[in-house]
Design brief:
There is one protein chain. The protein has 8 helices and no strands. By secondary structure, it is mostly helical. It has one domain. Helix 2 packs antiparallel against helix 3, helix 2 runs parallel beside helix 5 and helix 2 packs antiparallel against helix 6.
């Protein structure tokens, strides 16, 4: 594998490596894996907004509100699918944790519904995935000065594609798990498929974007 591709695949390797660790060694159920996928996409949306604000500040670009709104709406629909699948998978892959009550407790502030084990697992996902996305933001976007060669449209496309990718993985992967009643070990296959799809996506992306003369002056 070429070195530039290895650099591009570092972040997907770390994220999916964390998911594989959870499935293979930490005893994650498919429900917890699904929640991990959702948390990943939540951070994708959060850091997209941070990058968009950075672009507007650095390049003095205004407007572009349609992009965050479109991404937020897609994420909202994505969240509905996740909630429905968790409700349907909960009985078969409960992990001895009532994830429905845990999520309701978090959303509506009914903390007496929270189960300690569930809270610890959620905190673990948030801390590790948040740290990885923070690393990606500082390393790729700021250190490598991606802000100098991106515009609002290209940034939107780069953030939307991973969301669509995960949406497809969740619909078909978790859908197969639910309909066919596959064993929980199939969650391992879902993570591998997700990683392979990201590998194909990254290989098609240009390794390097050459800045224009105006963009060089903004470095």
């Amino acid at each position: 594998m070429e070195k530039p591709l290895l650099k591009k695949m570092l972040f997907p390797l770390l994220v999916n490596g964390f998911f594989l660790w959870g499935v293979l060694f930490a005893g994650w159920s498919p429900v917890l894996l699904l929640i991990g996928f959702w948390i990943e996409e939540a951070f994708n949306l959060i850091f997209y907004c941070i990058k968009m604000l950075t672009l507007q500040f650095r390049l003095n670009e205004k407007g572009g509100c349609v992009y965050p709104f479109s991404l937020a709406m897609f994420f909202f629909v994505h969240t509905i699918f996740v909630v429905v699948i968790i409700a349907l998978l909960g009985n078969s892959y409960s992990d001895n944790i009532d994830w429905g009550e845990t999520i309701l407790g978090l959303v509506f502030g009914k903390f007496y519904l929270l189960e300690p084990d569930a809270v610890l697992m959620l905190i673990q996902n948030i801390v590790i995935l948040g740290g990885l996305y923070l690393f990606k933001f500082f390393w790729k976007f700021l250190r490598n000065k991606q802000y100098a060669v991106l515009n609002q449209e290209s940034l939107f496309q780069n953030s939307l594609k991973p969301l669509i990718l995960l949406h497809l993985v969740i619909i078909f992967g978790m859908g197969a798990l639910m309909i066919v009643q596959l064993p929980a070990a199939f969650a391992f296959v879902i993570v591998v498929i997700k990683f392979l799809m990201e590998l194909v996506f990254e290989k098609k992306r240009p390794t390097r974007i050459t800045p224009t003369a105006d963009q060089y002056r903004n470095l």
